[in-house]
Amino acid sequence: MEIKNQQPFGRLLALIGKNYLHALQLKLRDLDAERNFYALILIDEGKGKITQQELAELLESDKVSVVRIIDNLSDLGYVKREKVETDRRKYSLVLTAKAEKELPEIKTAITEVTELAFRGLSVTKIEELYADLHIIKNNLNNRNYE
Prior knowledge:
Blueprint: H1 9-27, H2 37-46, H3 52-59, H4 63-75, E1 79-84, E2 87-95, H5 97-117, H6 123-139
Antiparallel strand pairs: 1-2
Helix pairs in contact: 1-5, 2-5, 3-4
């Protein structure tokens, strides 16, 4: 298949991501959580039982990047690390009262920006888009480079 006169696919995805995050940050400009909104949602869903390692797996990110995210969220007063009683080497991630107070606003903003992004697309097209993007992600998985 030959594709002419189109910008590279990765660049288009990067621009979409950049624009999405910009719109989200504008909606949440009164909060200081910066870009780590999804991590807060995952930590909330973990209900005090999610570790940094588990968060890294859910975010499909390396441990070092997740430590930086957690350090930042901790410094901003959104997340606490608590030792896991059954394994003192591990820490569970827990939202603070500040994060719990702001989480509904974050979830609403994500919903609104996502609805804006999908304006004009049918539910079927959105479902197909997600399915196609997962296929593309799997095609580009590190194991497939060889």
